Amino acid sequence: MSVQEWSWILVGVTFALYFGIAIWARAGTTKEFYVAGGDVSTVANAMATGADWMSAASFISMAGIISFIGYDGSMYLMGWTGGYVLLALLLAPYLRKFGKFTVPDFIGDRYYSNTARTVAIFCALIISFTYVAGQMRGVGIVFSQFLQVDIEVGVIIGMTVVMFFAFLGGMKGITYTQVAQYCVLIFAFMVPAIFISIQMTGSPIPQIGMGSKLENGKYLLQHLDDLHTKLGFKEYTQGTKSTWDMFAITLALMVGTAGLPHVIVRFFTVEKVKDARKSAGLALLFIAFLYTTAPAVAVFSRVNLIETVQDNSYSDIPQWFKNWEDRGLIAWADKNEDGKIQYSNSKAVDGKPDFTNERGVNGERLVSNAVDSKNELYIDRDIIVLANPEIANLPNWVIALVAAGGLAAALSTAAGLLLVISTSISHDLIKKQLKPNISDKQELMYARVSIFVAVIIAGLFGIYPPGFVAAVVALAFGLAAASFFPAIVFGIFDKRMNKEGAISGMVIGITLMLFYMIRYKTGLIEIMDPLPQSEWWFGTSPEGFGTIAMTVNIVVSLVVSRLTPPPPQDVIDIVENIRIPIDITTK
Prior knowledge:
Oligomer: single chain
CATH topology of the largest domain: Sodium/glucose cotransporter
Order of helices and strands: HHHHHHHHHHHHHHHEEEEHHHHHHH
């Protein structure tokens, strides 16, 4: 069977599974809708957390960005995995003991202020919508390529699926759907990695294969370094970013992870504090399968890509190349008119992925007519994992399996984010502030209406994506670091932190981060291109600026809290109760 036929079968089967679980796990109460009833088993919650955590950025884009930037890509691995450890050990058990449905709920009660709750709602919405933009980008790419439909149609199909199990089952439906999605995405990521590792190095373990020797006696990484230097690139194993920016991005990703509301809420779905600890540890193990394999996938795909396209005639190029061309995710311009693809260290079009809809004399899809660049090839980073099995000439069912895995990763995280958006509006805004006397049934109705509206907005992000997946997601982590992380940590460990300090810190932190993102990533403030690296503050990229914004948040919070009255005694008692592990085996 063809790749498309296999794709329809595997995607159809997995979607049918998701629909079936949603119908079986439909929510009848707000507790089931918000925290799955609070009685999810440890293993199921760990698998759901893994699926929630491993988004389209992890499945589709992380290996792609590592493949393109080499050593510098380690900051994504260190930041995201380190952040999860930080969340599991430092925050999750205490937040579970507090027993609230959402992060804004915790902040509103801990800081005894509806103003604090409102600021937290705003932060949760900004973070979630920024994050969900990356997921919808992934959904559109997968559908457009493997099911041969327009990106817009693919996004609509994907959002329909998410809306069904999120609208019907809430957190209960999402949790058990994510268990299935975890199994699908891990299987889909590992199978091609194992195939290619055996194909290239003879080792069935990709992590070992990445460090193995090839038939020519060279180590695989040494071979890739040689390919890079021949094309004018810096060695793959050498970094290009400054030490400070690497540190800033890694720290922003790490503390941003610990502040992500859609991950934190997963620890409210288990029955006991000890279950939150156990599920956090198991989730880290489940996540490690993908995160330790991603660097190997990046290396395999980079080698295969270069060896497949470099100096090959366009007329002899494999069909996979032309398939991705037709989707606008690869583009080529034969600038020296020799009919061969030249891939070298210069930007396709001043660093911008610009191409036309016209065809050249060799039938190639044209890159823009810029003549100041010798590089003839533009490649979208997000296709590396998806195209990797095709490049390696693996069986069609393996290629289709990756499509099903990519969709599982994107949709699972999108569902978690949409639930955060829904609960922020229905529970934290409407129930806690605007209409405190509404019934459980009415609150559930508002939650479902919020899901519907959020799905529409998320779909627009998929149709009009703001950038490649990992970069967009990295900005969401920066926003979480700049806003939530200090407020949550101080809320647990600093009895003297009051509402004035927390509110001031969150407002200034997220405002500073939003300004830097808009000014240096989009240039919208002055209706111009983003400012160059030479104008970054302290040499800090937008992806790493969350570290600076977080530091400002911490300083402002501490100073303001010490200059204003301390919190009431009942709030101090709450903090002490959270931190003291009383009856930890039963609570």
